[in-house]
Design brief:
The complex is a heterodimer.
Chain A lengths: L1 H22 L30 H14 L5 H14 L2 H14 L4 H13 L3 H14 L4 H13 L3 H14 L4 H13 L3 H14 L4 H13 L3 H14 L4 H12 L8 H14 L4 H13 L3 H14 L4 H13 L3 H30 L4 H13 L3 H14 L4 H14 L10
Helix pairs in contact in A: 2-3, 3-4, 3-5, 4-5, 5-6, 5-7, 6-7, 7-8, 9-10, 9-11, 10-11, 11-12, 11-13, 12-13, 13-14, 13-15, 14-15, 15-16, 15-17, 16-17, 17-18, 18-19, 19-20, 20-21
Chain B lengths: L1 H29 L20 E3 L1 H4 L23 E4 L8 E4 L18 E5 L5 E3 L1 H4 L7 E7 L8 E6 L4 E5 L5 E3 L1 H4 L7 E7 L8 E6 L11 E2 L3 E2 L12 E7 L2 E4 L1 H4 L8 E7 L8 E6 L5 E7 L2 E4 L1 H4 L15 E4 L8 E4 L8 E7 L2 E4 L1 H4 L2 H4 L4 E7 L8 E6 L6 H4 L7 E2 L1 E5 L5 E3 L11 E2 L1 E7 L8 E6 L5 E5 L6 E8 L11 E6 L2 E6 L14 E6 L3 E8 L5 E8 L2 E6 L5 E2 L6
Parallel strand pairs in B: 33-39
Antiparallel strand pairs in B: 1-32, 2-3, 3-4, 4-5, 6-7, 7-8, 8-9, 10-11, 11-14, 12-13, 14-15, 16-17, 17-18, 18-19, 20-21, 21-22, 22-23, 24-25, 25-27, 26-29, 27-28, 30-31, 31-32, 33-36, 34-35, 34-37, 37-38, 39-40
The chains are: A mainly alpha, B mainly beta.
């Protein structure tokens, strides 16, 4: 009887262990988002494309209108920056010009105005403003960066890199400024320069966590994972609750290129990152891959589900969840997620194609209009707005574009479009 | 009493032990896999491989050019391929090499680069017969596909490249004649890998041609910083691959649209034609560079359906498109399921999508031990081939960076990279044995195309590696402990003469191997079209089973090993005897 009892106890223990290995820990990764475990098995509602956001844009516009009541210089500066942030390039331009009427040399207004013009592909006036700012203060990093961005947008890449180099050499040598420049080098895939600049930022302020994070991020992206591990360990010693550092460390540990690849370690680190920063979709994306490689498919499904809660348009999330449902022998759920993936992918492809077309032909109003029309038709009004304004600004005589812009404004409840500064 | 008690408890003890053992087994089955692939920590690595570079000894002096003279034009980094082809049916595999060309304005230095054809003299040496056979043609070439499109018994050749294709008809092994115009397969744009296949099983070979990016000298973009570097494909829009139906009488019809080949999908560099859903019809898998790979399921009636996403072949494990280059497929587990091997860019690792059900694939490169060792490299040519004749297909990947200045921006990356050999461990995993595989595989190359074939008919598969620029490398397989083997030369009668699409099962030593006769695979290259099976210790093939594209099913028994057989559809196999020279 004793043996039988032992056997049954052992069996029960084993069943539990097996079950835990198959289903994961009692606390699911999704708990941080307030999702219960069972959600991982539910198909998500198919949002597919961003919801019609006319109401959101209308509300944003109303906030800007209210802000316009503040007629002080600072109020106008704030209005211009807010308008630029929401993609209303014309409003940003108008507000900045209005601020400059009060204080013609106001740096903040000039930077906002130049950024607005650059985003409208009006490169010459934007460059002129940046040059003036540099002439007034040869250490103005923002102006150098603005010039670099303008040249990049104008497809003048050697000039863009030359201005970025000037930002690094002549701009302010503060950690913040150098970190920003390093990030731009990273974006433009010049890793040696990026690393060198981040190193200088750290020299200027050895305890600056943002600079060290930038350095670690550059090292991860350029495949220098041992160095990245070193940088991340230093950050976590200094700031043990840095969620971003945990995420990057997880990416290092899970990486097959890393000589000390450790999936269990990556899993622990990423779960810690979720605790610290539950609304970072990138953590769930990385965790899902780790779980999948460990054949913990149910946990992988939960992680993908969490990712999709935060970013319903994530292509990786849709595809990953579809694949994991397949591995969990849930073919119908798998098919539904993969169908959503295809729908999103088709839209993304079209946007990419039209965006590249506009990028390579920045002065052609028709290219921007085509992109704007497609974004509008797929419900992405926030991104359609600056494209419509750019197109209409580049060719004010194109009746088709003006008509579409008027219709678009009406759809947003914004009234007649007015390019006030023109 | 005590004895009786002990006796009565014994079964219980056994039960406990059994229960515990079964649960421990279940536990380990349910446990997470080790971080490192199981094969990596295997105590004994089997490495009976030995490759020797015999290029110079074989008399191959051709060199590939990329045409570069400072402009950093996008196609210069794409490289090209080569082919094993027995163009004169003498039983020995000859070699075709695809060259680049000078760009307009290139300084005229020496003779203009051309394609090359080397005739196999049957004694380990080759003779350059390019001009004699009419292949002294210059083009910005990339790929080569070998197939007897008019069923006259002599393999014809399609060459792809920037500007379109050239189809050469083989005139009885005496001469190649450019029939592009009359055949209607010239196309335009930038074609890369290509494959012959009989997708409608009408007995005539059709043609699938991969297309890469919309590019011209005029539209070449500036990439890089203060110095121009080679662009990545993201900078350009993709071109649509083309499918040509063989209408007979030497004419083809472009059926891309009506067949359901997706417009503008992908930037295709590799193609594999294989029946991935096992319904008897040849399907197509395309490796795309920076775009999701595409899997076309042959629906019959001349129609294909894009099943890329649902098949699991489109993306990597992380749900992101990778930079796919070469591609191959094989039953590497010898269980009737397919694995699709895809070469990708550095830090992506090669993909190995394994079939879990009819036509459903999951990337298992990590667990199979392929991903990690291939991570640092830019992989172009990929092949499955049984290099030690143990009856299990190994994997070979040919690497080389695309950015000749990569060390400047990524210090851990190198332009010159090794070709890697992965030994099949007979349990679904591989172990890299490159360093134990002889001097031939110690070369550091800017590798692109790769083909395999048994050029000296010694029963061991040799390798042909093509570099972006410079000489090719012919690696002779001198593996000392290679097992028994059988090589099969299919010859269709009702089916297309090359037998492309025929599925062959070889049973010997208690194991069944499956392979498909086909063209395409790897990167811009064509391998020996004879099927080669290693047999390990078995000196007899118990059963040889062939399902021809026509539906004809032939079965033969008890074939002695270590021989080359000609398999003619619906006839008894004949031993092919080739004269030694």
């Amino acid at each position: 009887m004793l043996w039988l009892g032992v056997a049954l106890l052992a069996a029960a223990l084993c069943v539990r262990l097996v079950w835990q290995n198959r289903t994961g820990p009692a606390q699911p990764i999704t708990a941080a988002l307030g999702m219960d475990d069972s959600r991982a098995e539910l198909p998500l509602a198919p949002p597919g494309v961003p919801a019609d956001n006319a109401a959101a844009l209308k509300a944003a516009r109303e906030r800007l209108d209210r802000a316009a009541a503040d007629t002080t210089l600072q109020g106008k500066e704030r209005l211009a920056a807010a308008a630029l942030g929401m993609g209303d390039l014309w409003r940003a331009e108008a507000a900045a010009c209005s601020a400059l009427k009060i204080a013609p040399k106001d740096r903040s207004a000039r930077l906002t105005l130049a950024a607005s013009l650059r985003q409208q592909d009006r490169f010459d006036p934007a460059s002129m403003i940046y040059r003036q700012l540099i002439a007034e203060d040869r250490h103005d990093s923002d102006a150098y960066l603005g010039m670099a961005d303008t040249m990049f947008a104008a497809n003048r890449r050697p000039d863009a890199f030359a201005w970025l180099a000037r930002a690094a050499s002549d701009g302010a040598q503060t950690a913040l400024s150098l970190t920003t420049i390093a990030h731009r080098y990273q974006d433009w895939k010049d890793y040696p320069k990026a690393e060198e600049t981040a190193g200088r930022a750290l020299k200027a302020a050895p305890d600056d966590i943002d600079a060290r994070l930038e350095l670690a991020s550059i090292q991860v992206e350029s495949g220098r994972l041992d160095d990245a591990r070193h940088s991340l360990d230093a950050i976590l010693t200094q700031d043990p609750k840095n969620g971003l550092a945990y995420r990057l460390l997880g990416v290092v540990l899970m990486n097959a290129t890393y000589s000390r690849q450790d999936l269990n370690g990556a899993r622990r680190v990423l779960e810690r990152a979720v605790e610290l920063n539950p609304r970072d979709p990138n953590i769930y994306s990385a965790a899902a891959v780790v779980y999948r490689e460990q054949r913990l498919y149910r946990l992988a499904a939960q992680a993908y589900d969490a990712l999709l809660q935060l970013d319903p348009t994530s292509l990786e999330g849709r595809y990953g969840l579809g694949q994991v449902y397949g591995l969990l022998s849930k073919p119908e759920l798998s098919r539904r997620q993969l169908a959503l993936y295809e729908q999103l992918d088709e839209r993304q492809r079209r946007v990419t194609r039209l965006s590249e077309d506009a990028l390579h032909n920045p002065r052609q109003a028709g290219k921007h209009a085509a992109l704007a029309r497609y974004l509008e038709s797929s419900g992405d009004y926030a991104r359609a707005l600056p494209q419509y304004q750019t197109a209409a600004g580049l060719d004010p005589n194109d009746r088709g574009i003006q008509r579409d812009l008027t219709r678009f404004y009406a759809r947003l409840g914004w009234g007649k479009p007015v390019h006030e500064s023109q | 009493m005590s004895n009786s008690i002990r006796t009565s408890l014994c079964p219980l003890r056994r039960l406990v032990v059994l229960i515990l053992a079964s649960f421990i087994g279940a536990l380990s089955a349910g446990c997470p896999q080790r971080a490192t692939p199981p094969g990596v920590s295997a105590p004994a690595v089997r490495s009976p491989y030995q490759f020797v570079d015999v290029t110079a000894k074989a008399g191959i002096t051709w060199q590939r050019t990329d045409g570069a003279y400072g402009g950093k034009l996008f196609p210069e980094a794409a490289g090209g391929g080569g082919a094993f082809i027995d163009y004169d049916n003498d039983g020995y595999e000859d070699i075709i090499l695809v060259n680049g060309d000078w760009w307009p304005g290139h300084p005229l230095t020496g003779p203009r680069p051309t394609l090359a054809l080397y005739h196999n003299n049957g004694n380990g040496t080759f003779s350059d017969v390019t001009a004699q056979l009419g292949l002294n043609v210059s083009l910005q070439g990339m790929g080569v596909a070998v197939g007897d499109y008019d069923n006259d018994g002599f393999d014809d050749v399609l060459i792809t490249g920037v500007g379109g294709n050239i189809l050469f008809h083989n005139e009885g092994g005496k001469r190649f004649v450019d029939v592009t115009k009359s055949a209607g397969v010239g196309g335009s744009g930038w074609s890369t890998s290509a494959a012959w296949l009989d997708y409608d099983n009408d007995g005539r070979l059709d043609l699938f041609v991969c297309h890469y990016c919309k590019w011209s000298i005029k539209t070449d973009l500036y990439c890089g910083g203060q110095t121009k570097i080679y662009c990545t494909p993201e900078a350009y829009a993709g071109e649509t691959c083309r499918l040509y139906h063989n209408e007979g009488h030497g004419r083809f019809k472009d059926v891309t649209n009506q067949a359901g080949i997706r417009i503008g999908r992908g930037k295709a560099l590799g193609v594999c034609t294989v029946d991935f859903d096992h319904d008897g019809k040849t399907d197509i898998i395309v490796a795309n560079d920076g775009e999701p790979n595409v899997a076309y399921r042959n629906m019959g009636g001349g129609k294909f359906k894009d099943v890329s996403v649902e098949s699991g072949l489109a993306l990597g494990e992380d749900g992101k498109p990778r930079n796919g280059m070469g591609i191959d497929a094989a039953d590497y587990k010898n269980d009737g399921t397919l694995g699709v091997l895809i070469g990708n860019f550095a830090y992506q690792g090669a993909g190995l999508h394994h079939e879990k059900g009819a036509g459903l694939f999951y990337d298992e490169a990590h667990m199979a031990g392929i991903q990690q060792p291939s991570m640092p490299y830019v992989t172009f040519g990929v092949l499955f081939a049984d290099m030690d004749n143990d009856g299990w297909k190994d994997a070979i990947i040919c690497n080389g960076h695309t950015d000749d200045m990569t060390e400047r921006s990524l210090p851990l990356q190198h332009v010159l990279q090794p070709t890697q050999l992965f030994a099949n461990q007979h349990n679904g995993t591989f172990v890299e044995v490159t360093k134990q595989a002889g001097p031939g595989l110690s070369l550091q190359l800017v590798g692109r195309g790769m083909a395999c074939g048994d050029f000296d008919n010694d029963g061991r598969l040799d390798l042909l590696l093509i570099q972006n620029t410079g000489p090719p490398h012919l690696l002779h397989n001198e593996s000392p402990a290679a097992g028994h083997w059988i090589t099969l030369l299919p010859q269709g009668t009702k089916s297309n003469r090359d037998g492309y699409g025929a599925v062959i099962r070889v049973t010997s030593g208690g194991m069944t191997q499956t392979d498909t006769v086909r063209s395409g695979s790897s990167y811009c290259s064509a391998s020996d079209r004879r099927l080669h099976f290693g047999l390990g210790a078995a000196s007899l093939v118990n059963t040889l089973d062939v399902v021809w594209p026509s539906g004809q099913h032939d079965t033969w028994h008890n074939l002695p090993a270590d021989k080359i057989y000609r398999l003619t559809e619906a006839r008894s196999p004949q031993m092919a005897i080739y004269p030694k020279r």
